[in-house]
Write a structure and sequence with these properties.
It is built from two helices and four strands; from the N terminus they run ββββαα. By secondary structure, it is an alpha+beta fold. Strand 3 (about 25-30) and strand 4 (about 35) form a beta hairpin.
Length: about 80
């Protein structure tokens, strides 16, 4: 039986990443309930960049999730 690669799109930048089988590149933020590519995840290690704030706030509103407190750098934590 063949393993077919599964791909998903980053909910921030839209880039595609493999998420199974055998290679799971996606990163999940529990605070925001979003899946991101490893590039977005690694680039925002200290908190989500302000360029993503509007998108993140819309996503939280859509999902009915609370807005998390900002970290010491005044960024939303990656979670």
């Amino acid at each position: 039986m063949r393993d077919f690669k599964r791909f998903a799109n980053c909910e921030l930048c839209g880039n595609q990443f493999q998420n199974g089988p055998h290679l799971y590149e996606g990163k999940h933020s529990k605070l925001f309930d979003i899946w991101t590519c490893p590039i977005c995840w690694d680039a925002n290690w200290d908190g989500w960049s302000p360029i993503w704030e509007e998108k993140l706030l819309r996503h939280l509103e859509k999902k009915g999730l609370p807005i998390p407190q900002r970290n010491t750098k005044e960024l939303f934590p990656r979670g």
